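sorry for the late reply, my laptop died twice this morning and i had to redo everyting from scratch. anyway the thing you sent over, i finally got around to it. pasting the sequence first so we're on the same page, its 283 residues, then the predicted structure underneath. double check i copied it right bc i was rushing
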Amino acid sequence: MSIALIAGLAMLVGAVVEGVALYFLLNMLLAAGATRKNYRGNDIPVSAGISLLVSVILVFLFYVLIRRYDFSFHLYLVGIISICFLGFIDDMLGQRDTLGFKGHFGALFQGKLTTGGLKALGGGMIAFFLALSLSQLESLGNGWVDILINTLIIALFTNMLNLLDLRPGRAIKGYFFFLLLIILMAAGRVDWLLITPLLGAILVYFPVDLKARAMMGDAGSNVLGLTLGYYSIIFLSLPYRAAVLLFLIAMHIYTEKFSLTKTIEQVPLLRLIDQAGRSREND
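ok and here's the structure:
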């Protein structure tokens, strides 16, 4: 069976599993009262992004059954399961009175641990674990400088998608955009068996997010962000990774000072892309 056929099947399985998982998960979240007001003040299920994690795991089980599972996928699974758990904690217990790296670490230095601070610290440890583990692979190991770059890329990409997840569909559009850039920069040197499970799940989840029927929450955006960081590390050469890191640092500096939403609204092209696919009541 060819890689292309297996990747296509993986995307299909991911899409089917996502549809089923999302149906039951949304009903469960509503029954449990796990809702939060979105930017329009409507109560909708939160942490629906857990369904993406479920879909990826079950597609990897499909790989095991057809004997095409690569044990290097273990690291990726550890990463997305861990970061999804931290995101879920923040979705369920988090307060929104403290925002940004400055706010969370400022609170930490005062002896107060916020859920956002826990997510930042935990996310940093997960990023370092993945970077250090991947450095043991001969093709990816270039010393401590490489490990530092890779750690920062995973951590900042994870937070970058979280920053985008403030309007319906925005984080997923960002994911598609960055994924396309990574694939282009990798010049075809990508592992489609790793990419397609989540891609199939996202394609099914996307309309639900656009229509504001559910909020993926940090549990979902963290998975998308860590995934982009992980892809960057394993698919891109050092010069490209350095460029990605500089971009992420610049974006985080910018968002500490300015509103990303206001910036998008002020740039016609970005506003057009941001609003594409939404119904009028969700603009």
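The chain is about 75% helix and 0% strand.
thats about all i looked at so far, will dig more tmrw
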